[in-house]
Amino acid sequence: MSPRRSGESGRLMTQRYRDKYFIDSEGPLLPETLKDLDMAYGVSARINQMVPCESCGVCCHQKRIIVQDHEIARISEHLNIERSSFCDEYLSREDDKWFFSRTDPCHFLSRENRCSIQDVKPEICIDAPFLTTQFIGAVFYLLKYQREGLIIPMLGNFILDDSPCSRKAARMVSEEIAMVLSRDVEPVTDGEFLNNPAKAV
Description:
Layout (H helix, E strand, L loop, with lengths): L3 E3 L5 E6 L3 E5 L5 H20 L15 E2 L1 H10 L4 H8 E4 L2 E4 L22 H5 L2 H17 L17 H7 L2 H9 L10 H4 L6
Antiparallel strand pairs: 1-2, 2-3, 4-6, 5-6
């Protein structure tokens, strides 16, 4: 990781986690913090895979849907629109990041509650809701308010209860957390926990 200074006081460091999330902390992430992050990420990713999207449209009404640079090219090509025109029509720029300019609902949510760019949708949409609301919600809450606690026990507090998939996940998250905390396991890479459920961290 290559942290950079940020924040009003200049004391916070913004660091990338798994090359997709930005995490603010008062110093470099400690090994025990990284292990906790990896376990919490593993639980959230496993639930994301076990509880499929039910096309309820809740995730498509989020306030901030980030679009990465490489995704802009992919989506604009899929829509057969020039990149610059796509940016002008569908995106806004904030803090050096691109976001869909309309997210309540998203531009690409159809009347049938289906994503019209399903095959090329942004990674954050693939990660929703359990790697966005659940995992990142717990991370930001902990780093902002508690600092010294563990992220993984808090995951159950950040499940939305207004979608069918979230209600299913709420019934399994405690068991998944208990399973991970009862084992002394090494962190895994993306996708590995799916191929080897015994290492679901």
